[in-house]
Amino acid sequence: MVVGDASPAGLPAAGHAVSGSRPSGFIRRNAAGYLFLAPWLIGFFGLTLGPALASFYLSFTDFDLLTSPKFIGAVNYVRMVTADTKFDAAIRVTFVYVALSVPLKLAFALAIAVALNRGLRGLTVYRAVFYLPSLLGASVAIAVLWRQLFASDGMVNAVLSLFGIDGPSWISNPHYSLYTLVALSVWQFGSPMIIFLAGLRQIPSDMYEAASLDGASPLRQFVRITLPLLSPVVFFNFVIQTIEAFKAFTPAFIISGGSGGPIDSTLFYTLYLYQEAFGYFRMGYASALAWVLVVIIALFTAFAFLTTRYWVHYDD
Amino acid sequence: MTEAAHHDMPGRTGSHPYLRSGLLHALLMAASFVMLYPILWMLAGSLRPASELFGGDAGLIPSQVTLKAYADGWFGLQVNFGRFFLNSLAISVLATLGNVFAASLVAFAFARLTFFGRRFWFALMLGTLMLPYHVTLIPQYVLFLKLGWVNTWLPLIVPKYFAVDAFFIFLMVQFFRGIPRELDEAARMDGCSAWRIYRKVILPLSMPVLATAAIFSFIWTWEDFFGPLIYISNMKMYTVQLGLRSFVDSSGTSSWNELFAMSILSLVPIFLIFLFFQRLLIEGIATTGLKR
What we know:
The complex is a heterodimer. Chain A is mainly alpha-helical.
């Protein structure tokens, strides 16, 4: 085996394989790994990296699918920021949705997880019941249900009328429509709850025993023991749920019939992107929208990581 | 830490433990009821006669139970829902096979084989976890359009055979790393190739994670709305989710009970999986933080 056969840069060079009667050491050592990796490598270059670079280029073009893309510089980005009121609406709607749904969802998830972690009987049943909405929630059926729950003659108003309240038509009223979607998201607190439960199980119970011997109240124990020790899990859930919230699509699409209405009040960012791409075939502009979404998510994630040293407590 | 340690109520021994846990049960039961009520209400609505629905009835008990909405809803569009269910089933099964097969190969490479650049590729793979699919959406669409795949199922299935959903790779790498290395080494001593180790050592020991990946893959494909929405326009090829969307558009307020009936049916496969594989689902989420 000639070790020096490997190319100087350390890259697997196909030319070496065929020259001899048996493969060189470098290739033989790496062939199996790359063969197993092959599906992902093809997918990564052909379906992820390649398209991502292409969409970056397209974001600087005018492209309608029929004629070839026309390079127009940063016009798409400039138009987005200066002359597109729908973009402003989409950003506003999406940020309100993220800012309301994520903290509420995590608060419910944490509260229920803490309640379930007390060694109650029937834990698995409760856990299953609370998790079920997370599993079903992404489907069109649940969006259909939500549309009807909050319709003018829907269940919510029927309940309110028992108390003599004449509820509005939540879905078709621009003041309320977005909040019905926030409620739908909060209803699906089950999956972060399960992650919280797994985290809570890692906290040694003798810490609580010691604290209660010192006379610490349950609230104080929660603030001083549970929250700090759970903070990495809180952080994880926070980042994942926020990214997911930025990408929300189906409920807004079904509830508004694809329009993002009434008066753009449910025009989620991804819904606007869909309309631009597949409604108006402004593929260049839609690509620019996609890259702005990436930048927003990246900035948010970076910012979240920067704040961790102030509130996330990692084991030493 | 033992299981029993969780069952102590820290700091509560002095007060009234029965009263407290009774109160907690009452609260949790009330919360469970509120959580499930919308789904039960939809189920009840699907069983009501059309004349009864939406006189502002928030209750769960229909005055009479009828399956008429199921029968009518099934044939409520030009193409019946049976076709949509078969389409969804075919797409979900094929996509799931692809995900599990491709992700397990790739995860085996990352977890068990040594090769040049492994850390680099692994980092890139993790990086794609964070990337919103919108960034690849339009060029992918153009690619599939050029290949003549638009208005076929191929864009919904073929990418899964190239392990594009890094979540499944990540899930399996975590599991494979927990399998004792001595097993591979012993097999290697006996002259086993990497393929045989993958096939005869790792896969048989990884049934739980393969099942978890398969279940999530099936559910996510079944529920996927965006992919079919942009790629499929011929109603004969619709998935259940697209069928429901068309039903919403066409039915208006007159046949909400039929819409409810079809919605309930579309949830049945997921509900059954949940019923039988709840444990795998919950462990899968707890160990990896999978998104849903």
